[in-house]
TrEMBL record:
<dbReference type="Pfam" id="PF24553">
    <property type="entry name" value="Rv0428c_C"/>
</dbReference>
<keyword id="KW-0808">Transferase</keyword>
<keyword id="KW-0012">Acyltransferase</keyword>
<dbReference type="InterPro" id="IPR000182">
    <property type="entry name" value="GNAT_dom"/>
</dbReference>
<protein>
    <submittedName>
        <fullName>GNAT family N-acetyltransferase</fullName>
    </submittedName>
</protein>
<feature type="domain" description="N-acetyltransferase">
    <location>
        <begin position="120"/>
        <end position="256"/>
    </location>
</feature>
<dbReference type="InterPro" id="IPR056935">
    <property type="entry name" value="Rv0428c-like_C"/>
</dbReference>
<dbReference type="InterPro" id="IPR016181">
    <property type="entry name" value="Acyl_CoA_acyltransferase"/>
</dbReference>
<dbReference type="InterPro" id="IPR050832">
    <property type="entry name" value="Bact_Acetyltransf"/>
</dbReference>
């Protein structure tokens, strides 16, 4: 039960840090939809009670109707809070499982945050969004949607950009300080500047900023297959708390 309590707290902190535009509930299933941004975390069904598994087939279809209205593919995000019976339903109907993600945490005062320069967070969201899109190599058409998401964050947020005078932004990270928790999001290094220590520098800077504001625990979500990022975080001192993955119906998977 203690494990599930930790999962519930981290899930709630994560939802506040990466807020969806529309949140509805079907029982304890949280249905998150965001017309302006395609992120799976912003467009997924999130079951939040392992015992809530009644009328699975009807509720999956109701969720599908809502997602169709938004023009989004139906995706379930399955954390340890999801009922096992729901995974069994997906298995029986051929739903694929993909993008396993590790949720990691550490005590900030036990992390190695030294030996890097400090950088102040930037105040202008638009400037951060431009840098993030450039560093990630994303479509500039995402700017309005990403700006809307970041502007909706209610806890204190620090927007960090490392820049080179001659080439511009090389690394970005978002740090959300929520009571005693500090979450790291959107970490990226520009493709031509990877493996040069920029990611470590921007993460250490962001967590020092959060520590100065009273955060005691650091946490993050990283795709299990991103071995470089996992190695970076383990090098800092992060360790796994739980994992989640996504499920999608076979007819949707066939269309990407």
């Amino acid at each position: 039960m203690q494990h599930l309590a930790s999962v519930r707290r981290l899930e709630a902190v994560g939802f506040r840090a990466w807020p969806a535009a529309s949140i509805q509930y079907d029982g304890s299933w949280q249905i998150r939809l965001t017309a302006g941004h395609p992120s799976k975390r912003l467009n997924s069904v999130n079951p939040l009670d392992p015992s809530d598994h009644r009328d699975v087939e009807k509720r999956v279809e109701r969720a599908a109707q809502r997602f169709r209205a938004y023009g989004r593919p139906l995706v379930f995000r399955q954390s340890p809070l999801a009922p096992p019976q729901l995974d069994a339903y997906f298995d029986a109907h051929g739903w694929r499982r993909f993008d396993e993600t590790r949720v990691m945490m550490a005590e900030i005062d036990q992390l190695d945050l030294e030996d890097v320069l400090d950088h102040l967070p930037i105040r202008e969201i638009g400037r951060y969004v431009d840098a993030s899109i450039q560093v990630h190599g994303r479509d500039p058409a995402l700017k309005p949607g990403l700006t809307e998401v970041l502007s909706s964050i209610r806890p204190e947020a620090g927007f960090f950009v490392l820049e080179e005078a001659d080439t511009g932004p090389v690394a970005t990270a978002l740090c959300v300080h929520d009571n005693d928790m500090a979450g790291i999001f959107e970490l990226a290094t520009r493709a031509d500047r990877q493996r040069m220590g920029h990611a470590r520098e921007v993460v250490a800077t962001a967590l020092r900023w959060a520590r100065m504001r009273g955060a005691e625990k650091a946490w993050l979500q990283v795709e299990a297959g991103n071995l470089a990022a996992v190695g970076l975080y383990e090098g800092f001192g992060f360790s796994d708390i739980y994992r989640y993955d996504y499920r999608q119906a076979p007819e949707l998977s066939a269309h990407g």
